[in-house]
Amino acid sequence: MSIKLVATDMDGTFLDGKGQFDMDRLKQLLAQFKEKGMYFAVASGRGLLSLEKLFEEVRDEIIFIAENGSVVEFHGQDLYEAVMPQEFYLRVFDKLTECPYINVNELLLTGKHGCYVLETVDPTYLSFSAHYNENIQKVASFAEVKDEIFKFTTNFAEEEVAAGEAWVNEHIEGVKAMTTGYKSIDIVLDYVDKGVAIVELAKKLNLEMSQVMAFGDNLNDLHMMQVVGHPIAPENARPEILEVAKEVIGHHAAQSVMTYMEGL
């Protein structure tokens, strides 16, 4: 098995039950990968700024696939990105205000330089968002934002996630909603996801997809798992992910992904 690129989702996959990982183990793993001519990528719905902070000690040694595939960064260079023009995301926001499942005070825009919520943001949602996003700024209107925007993120009541996602996909042209957790969805450009991003990344690195391995657990990982040669899932993954995985390993809480990668 000649693996040259390993990509892993974060929450529910690489990170343990507390949303953490062992940095010392990762440093040793990265040294092992470098020796073997392998690349390591983190592929997450989290914002790029958030991922860069999480992996600050090793940020120059890993590839970031952030914002659910909207941007790929390596050594501070954007290898791929898909941003929403202001006119476009303001039109999408206007449509989102019509959605019966969406509360605009539980809505966040993520961009290159920061994240943006309305001044009327729900404090609980703001606190929740701060775990996954950096530099969150309050604005009176999203029309004030001067950043380049990758996506919208919002939360639903757990029983309404599927209906909310379906509503967005049915009623708003040019975007795609995807579940990132059991209460959250991301709304990205309709041609964007982790699978598209990892294919573009492989091209940049002159790799065949048969040389790429990916770990994922949720629906926003599905296309990535379908396009790589070696899709691996932790046992806690959703049924749809377990179905496409070539191998199922231990629970994410036991750091099973790190353990598996150490054996490559």
TrEMBL record:
Residues forming coiled coils: none
Pfam families from the UniProt entry: Hydrolase_3
Keyword terms: Hydrolase
Domain of life from the UniProt record: Bacteria
PANTHER family registered for this protein in UniProt: 5-AMINO-6-(5-PHOSPHO-D-RIBITYLAMINO)URACIL PHOSPHATASE YBJI-RELATED (PTHR10000:SF53), PHOSPHOSERINE PHOSPHATASE (PTHR10000)
GO molecular function, one term: hydrolase activity
NCBIfam families: Cof-subfamily, HAD-SF-IIB
Protein name as it appears in the record: Cof-type HAD-IIB family hydrolase
Gene3D superfamilies: 3.30.1240.10, HAD superfamily/HAD-like
Record InterPro entries: Cof, HAD-like_sf, HAD-SF_hydro_IIB, HAD_sf
